[in-house]
Request: fold
Amino acid sequence: MTIETLVAQYGLPAIFLGAGFEGETVAVLAGVAAHAGTLGFWPTVLAAGLGSFTADQIFFVCGRFFRNARFVRRISAKPFFAKALNAFEKRPLLFTFGFRFVYGFRTVSPIAIGTTQLPALRFVVINAAAAATWALVFVSAGYWFGHGIETIFGQLRSHHRLLVSIVGALLFVGALALWTRRRWALVRS
Reply:
């Protein structure tokens, strides 16, 4: 099943879910779909923004009300969690608005912010403004560069077997490296 088929079949709900779970890639590809005329530009921006907003609200609530849950404890043990809290303490409003634009902070940050004393209503307002800005930026990028992206993917489609092989090999090497790293960490401790 191709992305075009998914967009044609599921459209805006797929963008809503994809923007909430994956983020930038879905928003940019949604912009490409809007460029191609498959979807309207503004409904696409709205779906991506609402998906991002909803996911971050859920993560914020997890941090606020489920601090002792295994999921939150596991995330709070990660180095990015401490970095997110540190950045939040320095500039709470700026960080709350901008975390979604910084790679690696998208899921951890709203959970970390949820564990702070930031009022929930303030988070809702800042999150809404940030999600709208984020969606407009990334959907617009896909829309503005849609022709070039379509050209690149069109050229890539003719070599799809080679690409699948390369991606498979990269995934295998990555999994092997991760396994080796974890194994080495167990041996050292």
User: Anything to note?
Assistant: Residues 159-189 form one domain. The chain has two domains: 3-158, 159-189. The mean pLDDT is 82.
